[in-house]
Specification:
Layout: H1 2-38, E1 45-47, E2 51-55, E3 60-62, E4 65-67, E5 77-83, E6 91-97, E7 104-109, E8 114-116, E9 127-129, E10 138-146, E11 153-155, E12 160-177, E13 183-192, E14 196-200, E15 209-211, E16 219-224, E17 231-239, E18 242-250, H2 259-295, H3 301-314, H4 323-340
Parallel strand pairs: 2-12
Antiparallel strand pairs: 1-4, 3-9, 5-6, 5-10, 6-7, 8-9, 10-11, 10-12, 12-13, 13-16, 14-17, 15-16, 17-18
């Protein structure tokens, strides 16, 4: 009986202690909840979405808000956005605000396409990206710096992923020489989601081979290894947003073995002969012109003047006669002299 009473007493103690512990936990729980509510105003934190989707050519907004341990901060600050990786990735945007100013002066905007939408004084670093391209896809990280204490700066660790979508676009299609006098065709297209490529042509039995993109996840390449027939070969790229096509033509010279080499040699010799004939003809024409020019040259006026001077010297003084008589006399002497010669 005494053992039973002791057991009941112990159970009562355990129940009372349990209720005491629970009460303490409730009290401490209320305090912890209060700290949790007040924590954002007393520590650094950043809130960014996991992913933002937009189409190529449009604009996208990357949201970013933060909290800091200061109740009120009115000193100079700097807002920064990076791409690729946190802390060490290249900066795509940076602006600074003077003490007491809510205007953040832009110091860096890559290609002029990044613009701050938020107000850092109000804990908002949201960024707008204009004229999106597929190359803009990736992760972006926001950062804020307060001048002064080295610990007064914070940067998002995981960042926000920007996913740019686009319909397919064929960026290159070509025919290249292959082994054993064969030819192969290459087609490269880009898009997001990455497009599926297919070849069609005069030889439907040919199958294309998918190749890895040249350093871009949104580019794909397909190869047609052997073009067995002449004609038109078409590459088609398609994804959930659309499709694109491009074609290339193949025409080969068909002839007997060695014919092409002989034709090239004969063509080269004929061209040299034509050049030689042209040079000889030009020289002959120039010589003819050189012989014809002296014969066609009219007599110089100086020779005529010298004849008249000789006549005036050989003739005796002539009295002053009318103009008509003088002209007749001069012409008479001139004829006589010419006759003697």
């Amino acid at each position: 009986m005494e053992g039973s009473l002791q057991l009941l007493a112990c159970l009562a103690c355990v129940l009372q202690m349990g209720s005491l512990v629970k009460t303490r936990r409730d009290a401490s729980g209320d305090q912890l909840n209060t700290e949790a509510h007040s924590a954002p105003a007393q520590r650094w934190s950043m809130q960014v979405p996991a992913e933002v989707n937009a189409e190529a050519g449009d604009a996208a907004v990357l949201p970013c808000t933060f909290t800091h341990p200061h109740r009120h901060y009115d000193g100079p600050l700097t807002a920064i956005w990076r791409s690729g990786e946190p802390y060490a990735g290249p900066q795509v945007f940076r602006c600074t605000a003077a003490p007491g100013s809510e205007l953040c002066q832009t110091a860096l905007s890559l290609h002029g396409r990044f613009r701050l939408l938020g107000n850092p004084r109000r804990n908002d670093l949201s960024l707008r990206v204009e004229r999106l391209a597929l190359a803009d896809s990736g992760r972006y990280f926001c950062r804020v710096e307060f001048t002064g204490d080295a610990h007064d700066r914070y940067e998002s660790r995981h960042g926000v992923r920007l996913r740019v979508t686009a319909a397919p676009r064929i960026v290159n299609i070509s025919v290249l020489p292959g082994p054993a006098h064969a030819f192969r065709a290459l087609c490269t297209a880009e898009g997001e989601p990455p497009p599926a490529l297919a070849w069609s042509g005069p030889a439907p039995g040919n199958s294309s081979i998918a190749l890895q993109g040249q350093g871009h996840g949104y580019q794909v390449t397909a190869e047609l290894p052997a073009l067995t027939r002449d004609g038109r070969y078409t590459c088609t790229a398609a994804n959930s947003l659309g499709r694109a096509e491009a074609s290339v033509y193949l025409f080969r010279f068909h002839g007997a073995p060695g014919t092409s080499t002989l034709a090239l040699l004969l063509g080269a010799l004929g061209l040299k002969a034509l050049l030689l004939l042209g040079i000889l003809g030009a020289r002959a024409t120039r010589r003819r012109l050189d012989h014809l020019v002296p014969q066609d040259t009219p007599p110089r006026s100086q020779a005529q003047e010298s004849n008249y001077e000789n006549l005036s010297q050989m003739s005796p003084p002539v009295p002053q006669l009318p103009r008509v008589c003088c002209e007749e006399l001069l012409s008479h002497h001139h004829l006589v002299i010419h006759h003697e010669k």
